[in-house]
Amino acid sequence: MRRSALLFYLLLSPTSMVSTSWAQEPAPVTAAPAAAPATPTPTPAAAPIAAPPSGDGTAAAAAPIDAPPPSGDGTAAAGAAPEPFPSTPGAPQGSVLPYTGAPLRHVEDSSQGQFLSLELEDLLNVKVSSTGFFETESKTTTGQARIYDARLLKLYGVRSLDDLLQAHQPGVVIGEHDRTSRLIGVRGVLIDNNAKTLVLHDGVTTNMRAHFGAIGSTLAVPLTGDVEKVEVILGPGAIVHGSGAISGFVNVLRPTGITRPGLWGKVSYASGDTRTLEASYGGLLSEKHNADYFLYFGYADNEGEEPPAPRTNTGDIYGPGFAGVTTSPFLHHTRVNALGEPVYKGFGRFRYGSERSLVNIDLRLDYAQTSMMGNAPNRKTTLDEAKGQWADSNNGHVRTRSAAVTPEIHVRLSEAHKIELTPTLSAFETTLVPADWLVREVERQPGAVADEGSISTAGLGEEHRDLKVVYKTTALPHSQLALGASASHKRFDGHRSRWGRLHGIAFESPERFSWTELAVFGENTVTFRDLTLSAGLRFDHTSFGELRLRSNNEDLSREIEPVSSPSYRVAAAYAISDTQNVKLSYQTGFRFPDAAYFNWLEQYNAAFEDEPIAPLPSLRPESSRLAEIDYFMGLFDRRLALDVSAFYARYEDTLGWVSWSDVRPDDYEDHVAGNPRHPSSGDWWGSFTNSTTDVNAVGGEIGVLGDLGGGFAGDVWYNVTKPFGAEGLINLLTSWDAETWANYPIHLVKGHLSYTALRFTAGVAATFRTGMDSHGTREAPALADDSEDLSPRDRLYARSAFNLDASVSFSPLEHVWVSVFGKNLTFNKVPPPSYASHRLILTTGRPYVGASAEVAY
Q1: From CA 818, how far away is CA 106, in angstroms rounded?
Q2: What's the burial of 132, exposed, middle or buried (CB within 10 Å: 0-12/13-18/19+)?
Q3: Whether pLDDT at 705 is above 50
Q4: Which residues contact 721 (CB under 8 A, 6 or more apart)?
Q5: What does the pLDDT look like over 254-272, one tens digit per residue?
Q6: pTM (whole model) above 0.85
Q7: Of 572, 575, 602, 607, which is closest to residue 587 (Cα–Cα)?
């Protein structure tokens, strides 16, 4: 098969990532990797750093922990000049390709990079850094692992992380919440926050633990200039990453001064008056000391887009507050996907030493300020214009600030032993920022809070202090062993953050709270020629500090019992041939309750403890179990590839929101409704709790990928996931019949087609999903668009949805690339999966179009 065809297959598939052996790479910065041999011999299936068998078939001596991978002929690469940073901590491994977004073919313009052609079997050997404690070849990773690089984002006009997951990742659906913004749904599981999916930066989690999990507004920000690669893993990741990876995790790998040297910049303009500006600069500080640096800054702002004009049944669709509105004046002041204020994002990196050094350091500094108004009136809305509307976001927007310092340190003890230390200090601030009209109105009131010009609002400060220590050894024959421990202290304060005092009440959090997490873990991977076996264990324990609440103007203190959770996984991978591979795995995941969950639960228990009703149940860790088989093979003389996965999942003690007024109506009517000790201004009675019913699910993904000839390449994926046996009193994942998911489609199809020429690329991404049947009742199931028993709101949800995105890029000048892109070119009006209880998340139904220009020098 022609190398160019295989290159398309590699880069345009959802497992796209270029990876090369570091022992074969030339010096960084000044040259791109050399091309692969014309007819390479298949690489052995040994684990990346395990010693290959010796010539007489006996076991070879233990390999150094940073030993070069085998060369193309199956022997260790001899005499190859090592790359200065063969495995620097936190950095994407195996590739020093410049970041330029150049055409995927070899081009003469060296400033755009020269890309390595890989054979089909090399797809099985691409490196994944986040599924285990060692960097792992894709053929031996646990479960589904797909890798996307910056060139794929460029090819398809991917604007944000949620855009990538929605349009390209099989088995994933992106939902929406009017306060928490984007929601990640994985294989049927989608709730009202992102607490069941971890988002990591260079292997370090960025999830908040107050309530929201992965910050939804950060996922939606159209800034991807600090992305080098994205690893997406479906399934639990507890052995390595601990609490939170119930459904899967996303690891964003950022550039270094070696992988992206020099100056890079990008500007774009798109629908909704969206403006972005990004710039980076990196380079080598000292070749002698193996030191490099990388700096990045991004800015984005917009005004959002107007939603469609309402109809006579607006009140039925959007909520009672809109009843009787038959024209569009009030919607003129509402914007879809608007940012509440400009977004800023910064990243700095300094690396010193290499894996051959006694000590090497990767210091990373992160800062981000994001916001999301959702479907809020724009910033100039007046009080009169806002009458008749109700939503948290209508009164302003949610601003989130985050900062992190991570000095990752690797200590080389010997050729086969090393220790990795990863201390991290993270700080978060979440603030409700009032809209301009609300500020003006409150300032006119005699009771306004006059403190440096601020008005009473709500906020939350959160801090994480984490330390992870891992000992790694390859001293045992054919083995990779990792043993480690971690400690983390998390603190929450409703009135102060690292950025200063917070005004008003604590935002969906206790007044003050803290806890300490401790964990021990270990995993061993053993390779016997074409068979790789691994087993891992982990134990986590959390001790809670004093929980301080404020209810009915009373200060309350509650004691929370400690919780623990064991985790384990076993996996096997077998290389049938150089183009066929099969993997089996069984693993568990867990998540401890977040701070906000205790807030609501204990406030109600404290308020009604003198009433003759049972207290709300204590919170337990939720868990998941996943058994999966994955198969990969080449077809039709290696022009196509087949990728198949099948899984069985079980979700236990699922955490989510429950309206106790519906579950316990008698207690609500007799003792809660109208009770003067009720902790909120309304009579609603709800909290987070554990499901009383376990949910089982079966499903899988099947994909076909390959080169179509003539510069065309593409792939298509089909995903199905279906729950069963889950009907019960409190079930937070499925609908009433336990046969359909709550806010998740049963069937999902994603396809991609690209064309590549010398200085021109084009990509099309299509997504189709079936309707969601979760909003019906036992008396009126939501099974048909034209059902007379369904409200207009539920009819919209029951419709299937088809989206088409496209992007075209060309290079008019050396070092310069121009792109034109469009989203939702099919004018889809079906809303995304939503957990907004009072109204639908609005969608414009119009295309989102824009253009960008970037330069690399």
Answers
A1: 19
A2: buried
A3: yes
A4: 171, 187, 188, 697, 698, 699, 700, 741, 744, 746
A5: 999 999 999 999 999 998 8
A6: no
A7: 572
